[in-house]
Fold these 3 entries.
Entry 1:
Amino acid sequence: MAPQNARTGLSCLVLTLLIVPGSAVAGETPEDVAAAIPITSPFHEPLVFGADLEQPPLPAGEWIVFTNFDGADMNGCGWGNNSPQDNCSTIFQGQVLPFTGDLGRRAAVVQVMRNDLGKFNIHVTDVRPASGDYDMEMIGDWNPAPGGGFAGVAPSIDCFNSDGGEVSFTLDYTSSPTGIAKAVLQEIAHTWGLEHVESKADLLYPTTQSVPDPTFVDECFQIVQLDDSNQPVPENNIQCPNQHSQFCNGSNFQNSYQELLQIFGPGSPDLTAPTLDITEPAEGAEVDAKFDLKLTAADNQTPQLLTLSLKIDGPSAAETDPTAWPSPSDLTFPITGLAPGEYTVTATVRDEDKNEAIDVVHFTVKGEPVPGTTGEPDTTTGEPGTTTGEDTTTGDEPGTTGDAPTTGDGSGNPTTGVTSATGGVTDSATTGDQADGDDGCACRSDLAPTSGAPALLLLLGLARGRRRARA
């Protein structure tokens, strides 16, 4: 019998695609904001600290930025007191509501922030430090809601970060994690002495009408303010002239990158690999044809988007596309329809800095091996192993009906978006639209079993993931 094309008929393996909880999209722009709005509130006059300093204080090791997504009751603790340890604020005394994004969207916000702050000795976390000084960014809407359209607000222009940790705010103004993150970065940067500049490529551009991915640019730009029409015009009242003039010709220009590098020093890469453990099935276990594959994955930094891929080697081979999950995660993948025989599952997880962890488990699916699924080469033709005797792909055998696994909408086409390593959802994962005469089998060549195998269905269902509670 000639080997069958793995993408035609019923002799194929169907693998449902994985999706990260929620829609964490780390690379999108805030398109849901109808018009450009000020990133920093024009209605709040910031305090100014350290304007007479000529040099920054010596950096006290790694600086910490705490992103508070969980909300809090803010206190008025006295003039100039914006202590993050005590939830003090000179700007707002009231309730900051929890951020509406799920765990994936939170992790995507922090991922964008780390991409921009990783050049400096700054650590971003969503865990409140137990001691020491740090900045806190409250991310969420206010109750009562503020008047006017703006994305965030900083309490001060703190030259050289001389006053230390402070509390600033970013409202839940867009569904875009990138939009949220860029606003957060501007508000925190104000508390490090950075002012608004004219370039749309720089994170200190004063409105949301910047380039899609602004950053801290290593170039001198004119310092500006917004006029009554929200248009940037030159700023004459410079708050931190000594900080700016060290790198630019005149105090009315600013080099955001060099100033932060002077204040905090250079960053260092994260070299710590994540942890990964396949907890079920156990090594050497014998399992039924229907079983759960369970694993745990975590990273030393939180939150973190971990990229997971799975490879199954054996009579029914399969491989998943990389998918992103927030760390830490306990994940369960229901599997059914594997042909009897010996298998190896290899799980690979990478963190945002490409540190990698691998775990491998060997197990056996109970039952008599199905002829033609061993993958041994055909000694007469050199073709992959083929079935002998009658064609077993008619759907008359148990487990070989060819019924495609259903997705959340009850269809047989796995059309769920695949979340990329950066959290971006792609729509190209739809596999039900096949060309070249494929009769809707929706199989992918890299997921196919040994050619000529009986019709097999591998359902690697939507992972049931939950985030472990922190100790």
Note: The longest helix spans residues 103-117.
Entry 2:
Amino acid sequence: MRRILVLGSGFVATALVKHFCRRPDQSLTIASNILEDAKQLAAIESKQCTAVFLDVSDEPALAKLIREHDIVVSLIPWTLHPIVARLCVQEKVNMVTASYITPTLQEFDLPAKEANIAIFNEIGFDPGLDHLGAMSIIDDVLDHGGKVESFVSMAAGLPVVEHADNPLGYKFSWSPKGVLLAAVSPAQYLKDGEVVKVEGGRTYYGAKDMPADMFRGLRLEGVPNRDSIQFKEPYKLHDAHTILRGTMRFPGFATMIVCFSEMNLLSQDPCEELSKKGLKWNEFVASQMGCAVGDVKNVLKSRLEKVWGDDKRRLREAFRGLEWLEIMGDTIVPADKKQPIDALCAVLEEKLAFNDGERDLLLLHHEFIVDFDGRKERRTSKIIVSGDPYGMDGSISAMSRLVGVPCAVATEAVLDGAITRKGVFRPTEKEVYLPLLERLKETGISMIEDTEEL
């Protein structure tokens, strides 16, 4: 019996657990700091699954669990992965995550190799399936003597159009705070040979309309996602003059993120004001903006006009959204929050939750401009997947499926010996991504590819 330890019981764990339980030779321990959620996941197949309480900061308890298993799948926040990685190295147990490799995690590369274990990262949807789709085309171009001159990759996790029924056009299918942190992160990318840098908190100020033919019938806006240039080496994009990885949202999302930023609600600084009992939103917003309660609307309007000029449509959109969220009036700010971003996050999590019967939508679109000794092609690779309706027995969201299943498939590939690489890595090498593409195809997950001559 192969023993798999799953850390975390959040948004994407359902599909992962269901996939693992298809094989009777696998047993799962689902460890979470919310035991009830872990028990619900374990009930998917009670003969194979056990739920346990775990506080990851309790390192002796975590080390004991790791020691008792053959591999660890970490679905907890990325900031905690270094703790897990250190203990996996100590106990000589393989580890798989869907999160980005951070500099701190990269430091475990040599220790992991010395312990003869894999610390396999970035194998979910984005990052994950995006790597597989990109590298299969890039390597094909390079293997046939071509050059990749431009690479633009855009991804989105959204509600389906009919359920994008709020001012942000958005609902949470993964960590709410993760969405906000991504929105305020700095970004940089390569455009026509020039490095373009966007400072933290300003990414959505430059949201641009996506081409109408990218996903027929969908109007989308896009922004750069963190550091695109870091993928020049792992993606072998040595000849590319343009490298951009970005995020897409329906119109309205960027408007509201800019609004929150101008109201100083995305701050991660500790805020004493939040410790006041019965604090009203209009009081808190005024405090964050440095003005009187009665002046908030005019001050905010003035700030937004500096961003958008006299764009009355955007201004109406912004204030209508704030009214819908009820953060300009005398409603009470959620208690026990330490940072403004956490207070805002609590409101958004309640207001932007999926209701029963609603579905999510995942989109991924790669565009490559390639050159074969003067003959140019435009190649595309994309994924369009909608989830099951929320609230149905056995339903799986698109986000859970496209994060959980690739992560589970990668875990089994390590256990089966199909992937033998050691150290800290992502799926950008043939020895890693080719076995995964074949296995994912068997689950019904694959890319739609197209080529046209230019």
Note: The mean pLDDT is 94.
Entry 3:
Amino acid sequence: MLTQSDDLLEHTVKRLGLAALGAAGLYLLSRMVFKRLVTQSASKILREPYDRNIFETYAMTSRVNPMIMVDTNLRAESGQAVMSFGTPFPMPAFEGIRFNTAQLHRFSTPQDVEVDTTLVLGKQAAKPLKLDIPILITGMAFGNGLSKQAKLALAEAATLAGTSTNSGDGPFNAWERAAAKHYVVQYGRTKFNRDPKILRQADMIEIQFGHCGWVGLGSKYAWKEFTPELRKAFELKRGEDLVYHANFPELSKPQDLGRLVSDLRKITGGVPIGVKLTCGSDIERDLALILEAGVDVISLDGGQATSHWSPAAIHDNFTLPSVSGLCRASRFLDKEKVRDRVSLLVGGGLETPGDFLKALALGADGVYIGFIALVALLHNQEFKALPYEPPTQLLWYTGKYKNKFNHKEGAKYLANYLRASAEEMRMMTRGVGKSALRDVSPEDLFAVDETSAKIANLPLHYQSAL
């Protein structure tokens, strides 16, 4: 019995020794192979001309933005216009602006003083839109953008947070209206959302002349591309394509806008009537015509805004930066002395509570959020799609995983984001010595770069106030 135990121990020791010897040999061999591979590769990179050198791949890609590289290959593959989700190019934003500190020259607002966050749109309208916070959900369409679950989540989150959601340039839906306490209906350059029965259910009408992804362009979608659900929602007859006109067919000249505003005001019984447009370099001329029409609200879409399935050529090459469009519009409205009756909203690249409050300080009454709202909506659900698909596949109407998206969870987290943002805006408002978000103004700001200073007419950080 003892002999058998000794033999077993001897065999075990031999096997362990051989395993250790094999591992050591494999380690040494792998080091030799790895060193040889590195030496040969480095030698080729350092000796071969660039036209045969693999390192030229780095030289190519380092000269081009990764999105441009992908866009180029997509154009080469399809021979068609590339559709994207915003521009990769940087442009002036709110990061170059900071808040002044209230300490001794002006005291900060005590913590027990309530900070007013409310917003009234359509100050002289018969039925003004009253919101608890000045952060609104921007227009994002059902069907040619978001799924029903995603739209429901946006509506429910807006209700929980005391703000509004927006139909976007898609169809009105009764289920979305039922979920939203405050609902903005876009009146677009197409056939749907024109029924007076629909318009009377809106808390605000937004006449949409353009948005970041398409500016004022028209587009056409084949009937066969739509599901039966969408054909019904878009009011398409059999074989009828969906057409977004470049301009409103009922407006033969810009001055006809006043008649449309008046008609919508009568149909709705006096809810605020707004106009949405992108910020072009002729913004003051556009605004003059909008004011002449007697609108209650102006909504601006700046260059950093994103839009699902929109031409990369438009995103990358059109529209003023949001901060520039806002500052120019605000100065124009001040000059025209209409701030007592016309409200100003801005959207496009506003992503933090600091961005939101800076926009208010520079003249906006409220801000629109879209992309960042979707990010908050996806909290704790991203990995239902990742790592094999982008998280947005949970949100798009055509998304592969849209049925996995829990809209109740999405609504909860977006509402949390909105509440947290409002609270941080209250903190910053106390920090500049004010007690209402609407009272924060350019006097509470300074710029840390010359571009921001010139855009917003602000003092630079190194300039004395004395």
Note: The first helix runs from residue 2 to 47.
